[in-house]
Amino acid sequence: MSILPEGEQLRRAIKWISDQQLENPKAGLPELIGEACLKFDLSPKDSDLLVNFYADMKKGKRS
Q: Cα separation of 1 and 29, whole Å?
């Protein structure tokens, strides 16, 4: 059981990916997502949410 609020690991993963992209703009998003999933111990459901979040960003559905 985690002491973090629900969704906090996912928010941290998004922040981490964003930071990594700023540090290395050539970093591949799929690799960063995979690394974030391991680093933040995300569930398969959270992993899918992360992939969909970035897919929506790419399509311009999120600001």
A: 29
The model's pTM is 0.81
Domain limits, the chain: 8-59
DSSP state letter for 5: P
- Pick the closest to residue 54 from 6, 13, 4, 5 (CA basis): 13
* 34-47 residue pLDDT tens: 999 999 999 999 99
DSSP H stretches of helix in 1-63: 8-23, 29-39, 44-59
List CB contacts of 45: < 8 A, sequence separation 6 or more. Answer: none
Scanning the structure block, which residue is given the tokens 């591949």?
28
Secondary structure class of 3 (helix, strand, coil): coil
